[in-house]
């Protein structure tokens, strides 16, 4: 028997001779009995073309048939058989040797020509994979099971040999053949089994210490091929086969580790990640891969519609994102160690590219940003992948379940890789980020012992959005401004420029338009917008729960994740959780930027996402606007007001025409039905007042920029009776608490409104006068006498002054309109002794500038270009007069403004109103003018009585007789109560020595008040006595 076994070529299918002997003994009887069992060929089997073919009658025949079908080989010389002639004959003493010999044949040929292509396949990997598939498809009965298993092992051994020693197979690209399998394979499950089998066979055949090196040697060239192809491809040429291969690798632990190790950059610079395998895939997008590359996807954008190209970009971007997501999803699920390596790669990549988020890099196209960091498209794709990974815990927000996100994650840094793995900390550098509230000196931030995947995924995503989506958004806004500027230059050139200049500007405009469209397309991928909406809604919901889950103790705990849902109730608890010390500001900034972008370019998203998106977002805005104790940065709180404007159900004039409009239903309902809508006005005013004194270095004009959207929000909400009543209630509360320790909110608000109106319109009118002079100099030819460089300087300065004038005119007009709106319903607080002199003098001054003798200095051509509309200003100011005209104190205050008031003032205003169509209010204004004149005459008579006023009776600031003298505690100076009350609205210090001061600290000077009253009474008595004589 042993001799027979040694002479049998199929003995090579067994691992030892004893196995072969045992197997042969078990089947001897069955073979002699002419077992009729028939092994049917698989779906891939060759159709037997021989009419005389007979069923195998013994075990050796079955094995012959299997070897013929699977390997296309015969080890027997039988020239008379048709079957044998269609196979490749190999003279070998075992199948193992025969297969290897077959692989070494440069051109395997059977005797006949008409054969299965597998028989003559020359590519090693393709041949072996087909053999493997045929073995897997082969219908097995009991006697062939072990044979097939050993045949599979032979196949896998030979694949490993080919991958490890590709030079054995001359003129063959072994690793390219392996990659090609993922293009041509019809059955992905078999391909995955094949790859897994290769790795298992490799591990079994080698010492454990050598496995990693051999894996690298075998499969790194495969990844090199994909890396090279990906680096040379673009959005329309990338191949799905790469991702099929990477998906297969990412489910097999050693190969998954290889993907990460292969993608580890050679140095710590951020841009080095672009030069890796995963980096090459992430770099594919509709944006340039490097700063030197052009924006080139939109051809001739000024001459044709770009809708088709935009749709194509969105489709391919979404396909790419989905493919990348599947790879990372598989990597994260593969094993604990692979998950650790994957998160570590993502964390290191974001940390290495942290400079992308720096303020000084926000508008850099070339230079350091391009040299040191990955591309915009790279970071956008990273964000997209992470967004998709977040979707399972974004999808269903309900009151019963709070996402398991630990707010203290960003306060911790891992000291080494072991700690990183054990505690779940893979992000770096976040502990130095500015957080929602500062940590007081001498105190610490809370820290959890460890963090789960959901926490890491959440903060990784926000960081990626901060470094990707937000930066691209900034570039888009700048590109939009550049395009508008070039458009203006183009229009100017068409009216008076040369054809050469026009051509140059046209080329520049086309290049800028391509850039604009590319950036826009990258930001508006529909699937990404949907994911972003759900992610930001979840962030808002979670952030509010963190605010309500009060944690006050410092130190470490197993977890700081909110354990239960807490409903929002106002007023909020005065105790603020110290976990807010750990949440970076960019978590809020990302949401603000997204909302403002949607309003401008995709307002339909608000309606598509509906209340599930809008409600938590508005709750977040309301809560964080309330005070600096929950969001310390006043600039960020002011930007929350901008995001509140983005939620208004108004149509943005900048939205591209032709865009389908889904209406504004959900946004309208938001301000009518939101459970906390009653808090919007009060919290908005808190923000308005708080940005006056930011405590930080900021351009003075910046506060006006912040207030612009607030005026728009107020204007919309005033039209809704419920919100208008909230304004009125706040005004009444303020009037009832005029001398509170802290000046009432509404009082501070209207005080700042008047400050802004005077400053902005004063600046605007001054700039309009300067513009008139400069334009006259240019048009009269004076500039032509200047040297070219001075002429250019003058032109630039003219443009600068024009921009400032436009800004001041717009904001000044908005401020006056807001005062007019408020005074239609709220009157008495404006006429309170603390405020009445201020508003009267403000209105008089502005009206005099607009209708008085200096108005001719304000006339310029193209007033619309500078947003200057003096007629509208005059009308609004006159309507404010009329709104407050029923108040005697206001009428008197107008008459006593010695700087700007004269009886002719309203006559001049009448003349302007007649010309601009304001005839409807002439009657009311004339009546008010008469009342003012009467009040002036009456006051003049009273003043004539009070001649020779003792200095101690006069207010030291206003030089008027004090009605209610009070003593300041620090300087001991006596001043009129209303004068100091007005001063404290803007500055809570003693005006004479700058020491801290509030209204509760002052003391009435009763003795002096009595003296003043006695003196006035005496003067009136003397006047009466003289009259009677």
Written overview of the protein:
It is found in: Cytoplasm. One of its GO terms (biological process) is protein polyubiquitination. This is Ubiquitin conjugation factor E4 A. This protein has a 3-stranded antiparallel β-sheet. A two-stranded parallel ribbon has the order 1-2. With 1029 residues, the chain is mainly alpha-helical. It is built from 39 helices and 7 strands. The chain is elongated and about 155 Å long. Among the domains are: 61-208, no CATH class; 526-651 and 662-686; 720-947, no CATH class; 953-1027, Zinc/RING finger domain, C3HC4 (zinc finger) (Herpes Virus-1, 2-Layer Sandwich). Residues 1-55 and 694-698 have low confidence and may be disordered.
> Fraction of residues in helices?
55-70%
Name the structural class.
mainly alpha
Distance between the termini: 160 Å
Report the C-alpha radius of gyration, rounded: 41 Å
**Largest sheet descriptor:** 3 strands, antiparallel
Strand order of the largest sheet: 6-5-7
Number of helices: 39
Strand portion = under 5%
Uncertain ranges: 1-55, 694-698
What is the mean predicted local confidence, pLDDT? Answer: 84
Question: What's the overall geometry?
Answer: elongated
Number of strands: 7
InterPro entries: Ub_conjug_fac_E4_core, UBE4, Ubox_domain, Znf_RING/FYVE/PHD
Keywords: Acetylation, Cytoplasm, Transferase, Ubl conjugation pathway
Protein name: Ubiquitin conjugation factor E4 A
Subcellular location: Cytoplasm
């Amino acid at each position: 028997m042993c001799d027979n076994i040694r002479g049998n070529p199929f003995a090579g299918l067994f691992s030892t001779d004893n196995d072969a002997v045992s197997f042969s003994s078990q089947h001897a009887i069955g073979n002699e009995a002419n077992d009729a069992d028939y092994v049917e060929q698989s779906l891939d089997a060759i159709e037997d073309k021989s009419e005389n073919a007979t069923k195998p009658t013994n075990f050796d025949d079955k094995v012959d048939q299997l070897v013929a079908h699977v390997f296309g080989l015969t080890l027997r010389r039988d020239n008379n058989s048709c079957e044998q002639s269609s196979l490749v004959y190999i003279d070998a003493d075992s199948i193992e040797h025969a297969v290897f010999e077959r692989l070494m044949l440069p051109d395997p040929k059977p005797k006949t020509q008409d054969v299965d292509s597998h028989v003559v396949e020359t590519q090693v990997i393709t041949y072996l994979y087909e053999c493997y598939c045929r073995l897997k498809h082969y219908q097995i009965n009991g006697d062939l099971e072990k044979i097939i298993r050993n045949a599979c092992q032979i196949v896998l051994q030979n694949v490993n040999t080919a991958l490890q020693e590709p030079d054995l197979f001359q003129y063959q690209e072994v690793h390219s053949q392996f990659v090609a399998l993922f293009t041509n394979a019809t059955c992905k499950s078999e391909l995955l089994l094949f790859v897994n089998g290769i790795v298992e066979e490799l591990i079994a055949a080698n010492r454990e210490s050598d496995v990693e090196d051999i894996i690298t040697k075998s499969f790194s060239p495969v990844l090199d091929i994909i890396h090279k192809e990906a680096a040379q491809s673009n959005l329309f040429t990338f191949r799905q086969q790469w991702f099929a291969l990477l998906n297969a690798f990412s489910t097999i632990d050693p190969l998954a580790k290889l993907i990460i190790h292969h993608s580890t950059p050679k140095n710590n610079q951020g841009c080095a990640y672009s030069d890796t395998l995963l980096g090459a895939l992430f770099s594919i997008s509709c944006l340039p891969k490097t700063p030197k590359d052009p924006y080139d996807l939109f051809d001739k954008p000024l001459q044709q519609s770009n809708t088709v190209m935009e749709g194509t970009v969105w489709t391919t971007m979404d396909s790419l994102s989905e493919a990348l997501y599947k790879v990372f999803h598989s990597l994260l699920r593969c094993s604990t160690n692979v998950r650790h390596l994957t998160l570590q790669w993502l964390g290191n990549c974001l940390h290495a590219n942290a400079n992308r988020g720096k303020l000084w890099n926000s508008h850099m196209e070339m230079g350091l940003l391009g040299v040191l960091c990955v591309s915009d498209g790279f970071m956008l794709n990273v964000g997209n992948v992470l967004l998709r990974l977040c979707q399972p815990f974004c999808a269903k927000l309900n009151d019963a379940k709070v996402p398991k996100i630990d707010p203290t994650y960003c306060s911790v840094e891992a000291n080494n890789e072991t700690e990183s793995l054990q505690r779940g900390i893979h992000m770096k550098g976040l502990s130095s980020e500015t957080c929602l509230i500062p940590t007081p000196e001498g105190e610490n931030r809370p820290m959890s012992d460890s963090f789960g995947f959901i926490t890491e995924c959440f903060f990784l995503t926000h960081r990626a959005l901060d470094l990707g989506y937000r930066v691209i958004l900034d570039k888009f806004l700048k590109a939009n401004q550049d395009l508008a500027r070039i458009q203006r230059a183009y229009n100017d050139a068409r009216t008076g420029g040369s054809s050469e200049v026009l051509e140059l500007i046209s080329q520049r405009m086309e290049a800028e338009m391509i850039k604009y469209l590319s950036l826009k397309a990258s930001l508006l991928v529909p699937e990404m917008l949907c994911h972003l909406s759900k992610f930001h809604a979840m962030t808002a919901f979670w952030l509010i729960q963190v605010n309500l889950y009060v944690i006050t103790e410092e130190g470490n705990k197993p977890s700081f994740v909110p354990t239960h849902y807490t409903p929002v109730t106002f007023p909020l608890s005065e105790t603020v959780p110290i976990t807010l010390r750990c949440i970076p500001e960019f978590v809020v900034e990302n949401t603000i930027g997204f909302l403002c972008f949607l309003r401008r370019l995709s307002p339909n998203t608000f309606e598509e996402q509906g209340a599930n998106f809008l409600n938590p977002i508005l709750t977040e805005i309301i809560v964080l606007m309330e005070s600096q104790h929950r969001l310390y940065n006043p600039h960020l709180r002011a930007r929350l007001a901008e995001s509140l404007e983005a939620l208004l159900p108004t149509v943005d004039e900048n939205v591209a025409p032709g865009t389908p409009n889904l209406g504004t239903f959900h946004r309208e309902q938001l301000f009518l039905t939101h459970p906390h809508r009653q808090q919007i006005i009060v919290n908005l005013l808190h923000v308005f007042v708080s940005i006056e004194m930011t405590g930080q270095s900021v351009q003075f004009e910046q506060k006006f920029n912040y207030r612009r959207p607030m005026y728009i929000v107020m204007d919309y909400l005033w039209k809704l009776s419920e919100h208008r009543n909230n304004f009125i209630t706040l005004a009444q509360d303020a009037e009832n608490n005029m001398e509170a320790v802290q000046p009432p909110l509404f009082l501070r608000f209207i005080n700042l409104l008047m400050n802004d109106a005077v400053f902005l319109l004063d600046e605007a009118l001054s700039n309009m006068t300067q513009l008139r002079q400069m334009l006259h100099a240019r048009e009269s030819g004076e500039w032509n006498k200047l040297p070219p460089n001075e002429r250019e300087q003058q032109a630039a300065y003219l443009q600068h002054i024009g921009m400032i004038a436009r800004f001041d005119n717009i904001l000044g007009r908005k401020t006056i309109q807001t005062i007019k709106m408020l005074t239609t319903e709220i009157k008495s607080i404006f006429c309170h002794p603390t405020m009445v002199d201020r508003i009267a003098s403000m209105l008089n001054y502005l009206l005099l500038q607009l209708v008085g003798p200096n108005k001719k200095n304000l006339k310029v051509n193209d007033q619309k270009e500078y947003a200057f509309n003096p007629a509208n200003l005059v009308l609004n100011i006159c309507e404010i007069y009329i709104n407050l005209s029923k108040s005697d104190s206001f009428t008197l205050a107008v008459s006593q403004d010695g700087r700007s008031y004269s009886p002719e003032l309203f006559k001049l205003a009448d003349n302007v109103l007649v010309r601009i169509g304001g005839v409807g209010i002439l009657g009311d204004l004339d009546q008010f003018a008469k009342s003012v004149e009467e009040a002036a005459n009456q006051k003049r008579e009273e003043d004539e009585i009070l001649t020779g006023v003792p200095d101690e009776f006069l207010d030291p600031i206003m030089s008027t007789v004090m009605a209610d003298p009070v003593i300041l505690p620090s300087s001991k100076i006596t001043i009129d109560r209303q004068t100091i009350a007005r001063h404290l609205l803007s500055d809570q210090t003693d005006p004479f020595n700058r020491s801290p001061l509030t209204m509760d600290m002052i003391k009435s000077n009763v003795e002096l008040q009595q003296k003043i009253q006695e003196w006035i009474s005496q003067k009136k008595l003397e006047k009466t006595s003289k009259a009677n004589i």
